[in-house]
Every structure is written in C-alpha cells, then in structure tokens.
Amino acid sequence: SQQGEEDPQALSIQEGENATMNCSYKTSINNLQWYRQNSGRGLVHLILIRSNEREKHSGRLRVTLDTSKKSSSLLITASRAADTASYFCATARSGQAGTALIFGKGTTLSVSS
Amino acid sequence: NAGVTQTPKFRVLKTGQSMTLLCAQDMNHEYMYWYRQDPGMGLRLIHYSVGEGTTAKGEVPDGYNVSRLKKQNFLLGLESAAPSQTSVYFCASSTNPGSGELFFGEGSRLTVL
Fold it and tell me: Which of A3, A58, A102, A108 to mutate against chain B (most B CBs within 10 Å)?
C-alpha cells in the first residue's frame, strides 16, 4: 500500500497566491521527500527533510514535518503559472531487500494567470 | 551527461505479446527502480534493484520481471502483456534513497490493446 497520501488531490489558485499541499504517512521515517512532475515528464526532486528537522526552505518552497502527526506540508509562496504541475511526497521503506521510495498519489496544482 | 534514459518512449502491444523496457543510467548509481503511473494512482513501485545482480519486488510486481546484469542497466519485461498493464512506466536511480534523491527518466508510455 502507498505510504504517503497527499491532500488535496487538486488545487487551483491565481498567480501570486500561496499554495499549500499536505502529506500524511503511516510508519516512522528517516526523511521525507517532495517531487514535482510537469505534464508528460518525469519527476524532479524538490526538497528532502530529515526526521529531526521541523522546517526547511528552498527558494519559494517551505516544507514542514511533524513526526508526531506523521504529516508534512509543502508551501509554495507567490505562485507562478510555471508552478502548474503535480506534486508528490515520498518516504523511504527499508527492508531486507534494500530501500525503496514509496510515493503518494499526488496533488495537482493549477496556477492561472 | 544523459542521466536516466528510457527506451522505447512509446509502444503499442497486443494482448499476449512480450516486450522489454530498457533503463540506462550514467551516474554510477547502485539503486534503480521501475514505477508505473496510472491516473489517480500516483506512482507505484513495481521492482527495484540495490545493485548489480540483485532485484526485489515492489508494491505491484505481478506480471513483470526484471534483470540487472550490468550496474548501469535495469530491464523491465512483460512476458504476456495484458490491457491492465497499459500505463506510463518510469525508471529512476539513486545513490541511496534513504538519504538522497531519485533521478527519473522521462517515462515510457505503453498501450496494450
């Protein structure tokens, strides 16, 4: 089963507004990652936040992590039309066969100008 | 530096036919992954490999086989294609997914009639 679940499934905003996406996960983690996917393209890594971090920034991106609630949020400030994409959270699942990243179903963000 | 390259990019198969998707990476990564992406389902892990000569099952391995004979290549095979395998397939690689990012290919769109 998928580890992370994003919320909302879809989000529509105007340019200049902030966009917030949430991710909930089920088991304990070492880190949580966020990825972006433009239509018809592969995923691109945005940011990684470790379990001992509560907040991390990268340009217009702000990620928070609450391990007690098993949740993370991605905030995109001052959104642009070019931010239109799907956003996925991912967590690492480790087992005897090694480590794999498990992705959520994603949030589709539409930014209109 | 090509990164992660998938071939073919598009393929149409008839039910029962077989085919192989090739993923090649030039970053000397140990870890390689095959995901499938279906509308509303996000990315689901099919198989993965933690090094040359190793493979492991992911979330949805049935109907697929994989091989990692060379470190830079990860092959995904469909022995007898079914319409349910119509999907977009993504390959990814990483040095260590537990602490680092995945690099994705651009995807292979497969249609099974």
Answer: A102
